[in-house]
Amino acid sequence: MSGAAYNEILDAAFKASGGDGRPPVISDPSALVRRMGKGKDGKGTAYGTDPIHVYRIYYFFLFHDDARLAPYGERISQALFGKSFYDEFERDMIRLGIPRPRHLPAVKIARLGPISISLGNAANLQPLEIDQHFEATLTEDGIPDVYAALHWSARLSNLHGRTEEHKRLMAWALDDASNRAKVMLISGPGGSGKTRLAAHVVTRLVHDKDKLWHGDFLPSNPDGAIYNGAGNGVALIIDYPEERTAEVKAILKSAAEGTEYDRPIRIILVSRQDRQSWLKILNDPGYPNFEEIRLEAKPYLDFEDAETIAHDVMEDYPGSIGRRGKIRAKFLPDWLNHDPVHRLPLNVVAASVHAVLFPDRAFSLNGKGVLSALADFELRRVRSYSERDLGARNALEKLLALSLLTPTGLGKDTIHELGESGICEGKTGNHLLEAVQATPFWRKRTATQPGHLVRIEPDLPAAAFLTKALKLDDPPPGLAGWMAPAAAEAKEDFGDILARVIADIASFDVEAGRAVEQVSIAMLDTRPKLLTPLYRIAYRPTSTFSAKFVVAICDRLLALNQPDPTRAALLLRKANALIAHGANSDALSVIEEGIDRFQALDGDGNDEIHANLGLLYRYQCNALFKIGHLEHAEWAIHDSAQYFEQLFRNNPERYAEDYAATLDTFAAICSETERLEKAVSYSAEAIRLLKEVDRLRPGTVKEAIGVSSLNQSRFLLQAGRHGQALEAIDGSIEIFKELSEGNVSRYKPMLIQALLNRGATLASTGSYDENLVALQEAEKLCEPIAALHPVVFLPQLALIELNRSNALMRLERFQEAIVAAGQAEENYRAALGSSGDATNSQLAQAMHNKAMAQYLANLHDDAVLTVNEALELFQETPDVSKGAQNIVSGMLADFLHLKAVNLFALTKVESALVAIAEAVATLEKLQAAEPERHIKKLCAFQEKQYEYLVDLNRVGDAYEILVSVMENAQAFSWLDAEWHRKVSDRLHLKYMQLCQTMAVPADPKFLRPPAPFSIGPVDVSPPTDDFQLSTYTFSYDLNWLGDFKL
């Protein structure tokens, strides 16, 4: 097309637009020609040879406000290409969001964030073909691929146990009330069948003759692609959306616009996070309301459905891998009933596959044992290819394990870098890449993904594989260096992927999960640029990481030059983690800096900044509370209340929970300072305002009402209002039972805490049988959760077992109490050794109960061994604040006392005297600082010391101790009149007997005048402190873990 021809069309276009031959945008048509460039002859004769020129020409017409110009752009396009310009560059136009000119037939495009879906027939569209995932090859070179068999796409069994969920999802998809884009969340733990359910429904929508939709999984990078949605509807599945939050937010924002299309568009999120968690991740009321299907009811499948799945697999799988023979399923019923986790759909399939491969061991292993055995089987298969293609036995398994840290698997550049780092002996760089590409684990380039080393699935079996392949029980020295390239490939998703992988590893092996954290820290110290993806840790708290790891990450992020808003958020997160870790003094200094930072940002009275300040003051209160600074703690919670009260008044629905939490914390402070009625009043006000919000928006604050009712029960109990306390806690239990029916993982722990508190309340009234029933119910609920999420819930399970040992001792079932306390000790040790979030004091409490039960069962040698082991813990306790040290010292005194009474029972009186003297000396130091708190125990221990001295016939020393204890009791007679009466009666009798034995006159100050009237019989029974049982632990914690508001 010559320049003259172009100018002729251009001039006609200007005249058509009503102009006088001069364009409205440029003053001279020839200037436009010159800007576009000239041909080799200098006259502009070669425009058709350069597409960039064509873009410039066409954009002039396309972006012009006057629609009359558009046809002339089409004339130019026809002259250049012989067809419509828009057809030639349609994909690019859609990607750029440029509409078709109004004179051309529209190709309808649905744009949902980064997703573009063509709703009409057009060229060069990406297909949505879910069938491409149904190509699972169950054997390779005659060897079974067990992980392919476990993948949802293998379809070794029909979809059992999800009938209602399937009906609901199908009805939601086909609802013709509106063709707006709709979103459904399918939530549940790994292995519960979320992806299988979503894929099954989408497959039906695609293949049923009366539907004929287009549907598929959304690729990892959808930007720029345009998907074919020309059927009767479109269904997209987004797996791991919590690792793609930016995309999900953009999609939901677009869906919120409410555009009506000519066919339904459905987005299915398959996530481990429930709807409540997603609302907090989104943290914006502008997102659309989306529905949720939860796959969390336990047991995950009923017995019949689980058994049917197992038989399906055992019938279908042998033929698929060339094996014959009937599998014996004799132990299947017992296996399914042994543990609720065994009825997780993935575990049922895994155990059935294992039964086919190892028929002599069918259903003889627990869930973890099955995953471990299958990991060993897969490792043997992988090693055969590693030796054949890489010339190194273990190199390929390391690469496959590292691929789990990426969204889709290791790419070429990453494998090249790993080769250069020495991960495979004898092969570096391109040589390693060529060798890996020769294995069956290499996936060739597709329309949506470049070539890559496969990422092993499903997640839980893959975690078992990673644990073994990377030898996490003793990580190799180079592991941190190998992780770095994989983390770099994951880019901004690394933090979320790491959280998921650690959770899966920890469910298989808790200590291995913590090893990954330690290696990650070492990696970040050598590659600090990889810290960037972990910024999200400041804004999205997760229970997957240990508090220790969170503190380490925050420290490294804070060491960088952060802008103030980010630094403030990191300080908030770090303070929270330090308190969870028990480092309250360290937390206080972090909180102070956080308060300063947020106050400096508060130039315009920003609500989010005020909310974070309110949280920081509440954390400050918690830390001060835990180290015994109650007065300062009250000042801090007062400051928190000022922020949240104002926020609540301005926006009651959003800040009701925070304000209620602040009132509950006020109540706790009042309770600790014996202002019990005031505590009850604050708590009642918190519940009242929450119920008012619930009346306006039903269900939105039900969880907060349950928590506040739980706390209120404690305050009522301390006020002696036992009936009202039980009423409050029963109300809380009812709420959490209802909530946990829909969301097990979130609300069952709260239900467990409520049952634990109910047991404590019943124990306080002496109803130990009922107490034991409540604790057994809590334990039954907690065991399967602790098996799936040990890092978080092992301490809670241990606490239940601890209190159960208390109840059993009260019921004089001492042998059972020993077992229960031993289980608590075992679980605290596991939590302490793995996450660092348990504390020595918790473990010590379990050991105290165990030793006490052994003492009561007359197993005195065992009790002494337990106490000596516990005393070693106190030597390992790091320096702590004064308040915390007082708590530790008090526990130390209790153990020394317990050691003394057991040694005395073994007639080792001299050793018993040494132990009780040390206990008395420890308490005397505490009593000097807090006299009213420790005086009763000090008197009891001194009385025990007196008895041992008398037994050794050291009457002179005994006399001095007895005088001391009598003086102490007399000095605090005002503290508790009934206690003083009993103690003084008993001590007076002993004093008179000792004076008679020593033939010394009694000191007049200890002589008691005859009573003018009877005050009842003299109590000469021994002090009951020998039999002190540990205090029942309530669920209340001042550290209400609020959401991060930035």
From TrEMBL:
SMART domains assigned: TPR (SM00028)
Highest taxon listed in the record's lineage: Bacteria
Protein name: Tetratricopeptide repeat-containing protein
Gene source species: Pseudooceanicola antarcticus
